[in-house]
Amino acid sequence: MSNPHRGILELEIGGRTRELKFSMNFWAMFTDDLGIQLHELGTVFDKGFALKDIIKIVYFGLKAADLPKGNEIDYNEYTVGDWMDEFSADHLKDIVEAMGNSKILGNEMNMGISRNVAKSTKTPQKKTTV
Questions:
Q1: Spatial distance between the Cα atoms of 31 and 28, rounded to a whole number of angstroms
Q2: Is CB count within 10 Å lower at the N or C end of the chain?
Q3: Which whole-number Å values give the CA distances from 56 to 70, 117, 118, 130, in the listed order?
Q4: CA 114, 118, 122, 123 torsion-angle sign
Q5: pLDDT tens track of the chain, all 130 residues?
């Protein structure tokens, strides 16, 4: 069930189709591993990521999808890194896009209300009573 606009992405990785989920569980594992609070992510993103951080993003994305479903975790950070040898630039772009659209970083944190509200240019119609 790939939906990159909601932080969920399916990829061919490790010899089969697997799901990455950028959920609350993902962000908890990722920020814990980095030793930071969620509000500190901006400073991490501004500095850029080391290669090991990109591997961790995929690794924790896989775990966040598999653990709640009770799927076997048949990988570790090193196997994920090996699997990523086959990735193209498009794979990484798709991962970054899905991660950026997660419920934590995306619009869901604003209770579904668009942050870039544009003022309507429509003229209000008067109601007529019959």
A1: 6
A2: C
A3: 20, 35, 37, 65
A4: positive
A5: 666 667 899 999 999 999 999 999 999 999 999 998 888 877 877 787 788 989 999 999 999 999 999 999 999 999 999 999 989 889 989 998 888 887 766 544 433 333 344 454 555 555 545 4
